[in-house]
Amino acid sequence: MIPYGRQDISPEDIDAVTEVLRSDWLTQGRAGPQFETAMAAYCGAKNAVTVANATAALHIACLALDLGPGDYLWTTPNTFVASANCALYCGANVDFVDIDPRTYNISVTALAEKLERAELQGRLPKVVVPVHFAGQSSEMKDIRALADRYGFRIIEDASHAVGGEYCSRKIGACEYGDIAIFSFHPVKIITTGEGGMALTNDLRLAERLAYLRTHGIVRRARWIDEDGTPRQNEERYGPWYYEQIELGLNYRMTDIQAALGNSQLARLDPFVARRRELAARYDKLLARLPVTCPWQHPDTNSAWHLYVLRLNRNDIKFSRRQVFDALRAAGIGVNVHYIPVHIQPYYRRLGFEIGMFPDAESYYEDAITLPLFARMTNQEQDTVVAALEKILA
Length: 393
What we know:
This protein folds into two domains: 11-265, 3-Layer(aba) Sandwich (Aspartate Aminotransferase, domain 2), CATH 3.40.640; 268-392, Aspartate Aminotransferase, domain 1, CATH 3.90.1150.10. The strands form four sheets. A seven-stranded mixed β-sheet has the order 1-9-8-5-4-2-3, with helices on both faces. The protein is 37% helix and 13% strand. Helix 5 (108-121) runs parallel beside helix 6 (140-150). It has 13 helices and 15 strands. The chain is α/β, with parallel strands linked by helices.
């Protein structure tokens, strides 16, 4: 079976993890800060905070922006459920904005129209979460302009987009968003096994993200009272001393994971380059088939976490399910990304209905994710395309 995604682990990755396993620190050692510093430098961001997974990063990002009961978070229905669930963890409300039928990202036009209506109703969102689907950035300049006008904060769910670019800058630079989120799941661009990261240029937000991932606890070399007076009681404020200043969580990344991430980061650019080469090759090989290849906005340079095509239903005699099953039977590990969040049973119980976001629903009905990973060979890709061509014929 040719999988839709696969991690790429090198001997250097194994050596990096082994070095940590032989050290005195398996967690909260040097590897985590090293990974944070290296990723922030790569992206051009001022701060990075590692966490256990991208869902944890989304959760503490919402907490850091003071999202809570009575507030609204808006995101796209074409995403994994974590992009919406993070609001519910905070007791806030969720709503969705339909997708752009070309990029499959959040539609700026639909967002602007919905914001105009929400302002009249007094129900503007506190946070908007654009999802950089498949590795292609959302139209962040336009979303930033809307944020400045309507006063919402922006969390970029860039879980798919490590190594991608927008307007010639690395995704994660946070030029247009308040916080950007990365995922290091094994099928993503680079992996830490499980893991995530939040990046921001706001030092206050970075500090809050850091203690929210660690039970809300802070440790300081020098303790100062609220009035600025140094605390002199050495018996109380010794090196062991810490304070819980907020209700946080245990969302830390281990040094084992961080060491793997730091090692993988050294190969991030070659990984992305190969994915782009494979995506361009898919475009060429699939051009003669009754499918629609993914369109790329000229301001973006995708990291190509996913290659999703759409079946031209009017030109083929098979359903998506029939094509999917036939490809799986041929040893091609295709997948579907994503079932729109608003039609999940849990969200239906919250009042969402089929038909609310027609572009996302239409996209879902004919989308198929083809295999794409850095170590994929041209021969494997030829096998995928030949199997699809045979089925559609």
